[in-house]
Amino acid sequence: MVSTTKQATPPPPRGDIDNSRSAKSTGRAGDRIFLGLSRGSGITLLVIMAAIAVFLSYRAVLAISQDSTNFLTTSEWNPAGQPPVFGIAVLAFGTVVSSIIAMAIAVPVAIGIALFISHYAPRKLAAPLAYVVDLLAAVPSIIYGLWGAIFLVPYLDGLNKWLDQYMGWTYIFDKSSDGPARSLFTVGILLAIMILPIITNVTREVFLQVPRMHEEAALALGATRWEVIRMSVLPFGRSGIISASMLGLGRALGETIAVAVVLSPSFLISGHLLDPGGGTFAQNIASKFNEANEFGRDALIASGLVLFAITLLVNGAARWIIARRKEYSGANA
């Protein structure tokens, strides 16, 4: 006798079910609206960035076409002269050097604070300390600038003399001229204080995302607290640390008011970081824009284009480093 029992139809693959569900969900009005708003926001951002780049490039070309010198290597700034001359060598040097000093000071301290809040401090102390760090990020730039000019500059004279006496052989800390501590070194310290809460907050949140099982497994194998941090926490948060550092570096590169209040500007490149003088892109634009003529404003915009390009290069390099370290990202842990 032939059996007429029908065989059970196998269920469709899981991927087909997910695809059918996603197809149905995209047909809803709310999903279509959200998709359109998200896509429009992304396109708007790209358009704004492109518009900024086009504007800066157009005005920069107007200025560069009237300058007979190489503005990338010239140290003189006199757009109102005959012939007009403007150079960004001093501004590029001051911007990069002050940012490097700020990063060298802020990044290790920020990582230490983030580790203390997330893994060492008791909960009753960690919450208030994290709140204080958050408050530091909300302080306006002008307040930092006034504090730096009134308090930091006078009290750094003693540190500058000590560095000149014991570290002057390095040439960098050789103070060759007298004057108040309105130097790139002071600006770097002030910028380090300003970017410290940004790096700390982001790094702390990354450290708190470390899987608890990773830490418990390391402790079960006999690892000490520091070994757990070195083998589990820091590798997991490496991409986050890089991202936080780039956020801080972006603010250090573009900081304006605080630098303008503290620094004594001069168009002279000097390797003696303790000597007064120097300049940055943002400080020069803020201090000279109101009194500049039409060509002078174009020259300032040309320097802003260089700062724009430096910022894009820094962020691009950060994205490249993070992409090469995908094995350490939290999403893959």
Automatic annotation (TrEMBL):
It is a multi-pass membrane protein. Keywords: Cell membrane, Membrane, Phosphate transport, Transmembrane, Transmembrane helix, Transport. The chain crosses the membrane at residues 42-65, 85-117, 129-156, 183-203, 252-274, 299-322. It comes from the Bacteria. Gene3D superfamilies: MetI-like. NCBIfam families: phosphate_pstC (TIGR02138). This is Phosphate transport system permease protein.
